[in-house]
């Protein structure tokens, strides 16, 4: 299934012009130990390996373009920290969904909350519990870890409130999952790096939070592509930087000193990648840097010839897909447990293409019930 997804993504890439601190052993051991408890959720349910997943285009084809929406619905959306541009884009997408609904004459409200920082697991749980207790009709949740919202989801289920896990941390007990194939994030990055380096050279991986499904899968996808393709890329270092730009910069600075032949660094998100770019510039080295998310600052850095590439998962549109899926669930439509959202490798060859054109986005058609 993963090979099928990757083939589809790369075919689309060709059509639109896409190119489609510590030593490695101790770092790997530390990351594995820190993530061990949360890996249980992935073992119970992994959206990247579900065989009957669909795209929003598939769902529209199966159920019709129009979505009949009951007026007066209250939907809750919980994201991570809005200090990260990716999550601000996410918020903007939810707000755009609310606007599209109102323009269609449908009275639906979406309450959007974000955490104070990327590690505020308890604060995020409190926000979610508040929405459950206030009787919201559905919840769209982007958890910090694979476990911090589990109790909240169980509480929501007891009150028959549908729960939609939207990207990032994995809630194995949530009713639905909406997000990109995180394993494919890493595959796309690895293939691009391989092409740039002639399929040989030392590379490193800056990982997000060990507790986050997306971080583990992006890393696994990068390494998995190398293994599956008998690539000459050699991972010499990997360690968590917890989605933090400064931590990533410091980590990269150490690796550059320890590994003089380092040719590329893959980062689990753009914020960390931009920190790594600073370290590479300060060291005056020629090292490829690839991120994930597709934030505006990453695009600007690519245009400036600093960041080399990002795997854009289009957060602005992802939250709109999540809203549409949720409203289709509330309308009683037959929706698959997993809806995979678009992503694409962005580099200097296509950085100025419009995202809407890249993913072929069209707004949903909402009508009042």
UniProtKB/TrEMBL annotation:
Task: Report the residue ranges that make up the Periplasmic binding protein domain in this protein.
Answer: 78-333
The record's Pfam families line, in alphabetical order, gives: Peripla_BP_4
Q: Where, subcellularly, is it found?
A: Cell envelope
Q: Where is the signal peptide?
A: 1-21
Principal cellular location given in the protein's record? other
InterPro entries referenced in this protein's UniProt entry, alphabetically: Peripla_BP_I (IPR028082), SBP_2_dom (IPR025997)
Recorded GO terms, molecular function? Answer: carbohydrate binding
| Keyword Acetylation tagged | no
Q: Which UniProt keywords apply?
A: Signal
Alphabetized PROSITE patterns for the sequence: PROKAR_LIPOPROTEIN
**Segments of skewed composition (Low complexity):** 23-37
**Record GO cellular component, one term:** cell envelope
SUPFAM superfamilies on file:
Periplasmic binding protein-like I
Region annotation Disordered: where it falls in the sequence: 23-50
Q: Which PANTHER family match?
A: D-ALLOSE-BINDING PERIPLASMIC PROTEIN-RELATED (PTHR46847:SF1)
Record family assignment: Belongs to the bacterial solute-binding protein 2 family.
Q: Can you say what this protein is called?
A: Sugar-binding domain protein
